[in-house]
Amino acid sequence: MARRPSVFVRPLSMDEGRKIQKITRTAKDPVRLRRAIVVMMSGQGQTVRDISSLLQVSEDYVRDVIHAFNERGFDALDPKWSGGPRRKIGDRIREWICLIARTSPAECGLTGFSTWSLTKLRDHLLAEGIVASISRETLRRILHDGGVSWQTTTTWKASTDPDFIPKMRRILDLYDHPPDDGRVVCVDEFGPLNLLPRKGKAWRPRRRPRRQRATYHRYGGVMHMLAALDLATGKLFYRIRARKRWIEFLALLKTLRTRWPGEKLYVVCDNFSPHRHAKVRAWCADNDVELVFTPTYGSWLNWIEAEFAALRYFALNGTDHRSHTEQNAAIAGYVRWHNIRAQPKVNFATDSPIRTWTDYPAKAA
Fold this sequence. Notes:
Blueprint: H1 14-26, H2 30-43, H3 48-55, H4 59-72, H5 91-101, H6 118-127, H7 136-145, H8 164-176, E1 182-193, E2 223-230, E3 235-241, H9 246-259, E4 264-269, H10 278-286, E5 289-293, H11 304-316, H12 324-340
Helix pairs in contact: 1-2, 2-4, 3-4, 9-10, 11-12
């Protein structure tokens, strides 16, 4: 039998050659990469037999790629997926499966269970005749494609404040448009700071997590951190005290007043009783300090909460301090690091739905 004549790609221009070479270096799709190599080798004058031997593919495959490239150009390098076999489970049944998955098993007659596992959901679908057969992996894919995922239940603390919207808008306006006659400062307490091993995250060899001692005792008492966030600079100012009464809060306000003399202070704080103490209010009225209270159960509007989350994550999580002196030093080190890199605080929750609220939502979205 005579040997079939070899075929070659059409002559390539300089630009086409560079493009083919770039594809062979950067292509992520293995099919596109293999086809580009075939074209490049053929353009270099290598025969079909040599290319098939090097790439471990059939000669017919090499010939088909070369002919396709000569006819359609670079479009021939892209794989044309057929899409696989037709779905056995239609869209309507898939929507029904997702609806059942979002429903409590007890409502479907499976008493004694509050949530579905893939196995229980699969058995229920088969028992009810919703599907004739289905694997757990197919079920998982259906739920994923339908936007249904396995999530932890969260809580929702509804606010009872009738003035929620006006208070929220007042705080947002201070954040968005700081007054020319003063400075906006967010104040809150952080703690309690007790001595105990704290869980955290760290880079470790696989399956060798860092170990913490187990303890059921709390020695050393409790400390509290009173802190202020200056939005104009993004810096934190704090003090650590054994208690967090109105006396300690007022002392912090006096320190802030001394730091920025001649400026009116707009102090954003929550409804903790020491913040509303009569002597605190009286001193603020006499010293050009305006207390701006967040709505009830709306402390998340206080910008300093985000800084507390970062402090907890980077300075305290994963630690096991044996004394308050050691723990306080860790906090001080983080605050110094933070203040060196601080930037003015702008753009608070600009894309959040709270920006469009006209009334308080009755329940969690």
